[in-house]
Amino acid sequence: MTRSSIQQGRPALTPADPSHRRQRPCARKAITPDASAAGTCDCPTRPATREGLAAINTVIGRGISVNVTLVFSLERYRAVQDACLTGLEEARAAGHDLADIHSVASCFVSRVDAEVDARLTALGTPDALALRGRTAVANARLAHQAFEETAGSARWQELAAAGARPRRPLWASTGVKNPDYPDTMYVSELVVPGTVNTMPASTLDAFAGHGHASAAAPVADTYASAAAHFEELGRTASTSRT
User: Fold this and answer.
1) Nearest of 24, 78, 14, 13 to residue 47 by alpha carbon
2) Regarding the domain delimited by 5-205+213-240, which CATH topology (the fold level of the hierarchy) does it fall under?
């Protein structure tokens, strides 16, 4: 099992991509945006499907801000980053002001745990059960690592020098679906400078009441432990098939 199975739906411990059913209509809509979209502060939403990647590139290349949604895997997040960079390069070549183009990539969080946990519970082994409730945060942390890698690349630095704004990670679906988990876990564990969290009102109230956040940004050890979690998921899945 690999992290890409979160988005591609490989039969293992990771969920299928629920967005594939929306690919064609959303892709067509994405490359024919409303005329008013570029003049508002509301970003049109485009899915991170295979067809959606080309639409994201096109929309940004026309100087239009975009909210990329339905990002589930690290591999798809990297593909979104590449589509955004290509769009910015095309926008610059077309004479658009890069400072006017804003975008985020919405990485869905709790849905990942909901699906992976269900598969771990179905396996029922002690090793499998011990992994529940950890995949979503690990996945998000690795996405942030990928964001940092892109921000440090020569390709991005050239665009930033031309006025481009960072393509910020957005943590979506951050309300806890399992009542046995802390109700603020997808907030407390993902408070990172330069990111966005679109938590539901109940989660916002919970965090205001009893939430806490670390002042430290993710470090190499955090990323290493996240990657190690996925390796353990892979070993658990392999053992279950033997």
Assistant:
1) 24
2) TIM Barrel (3.20.20)
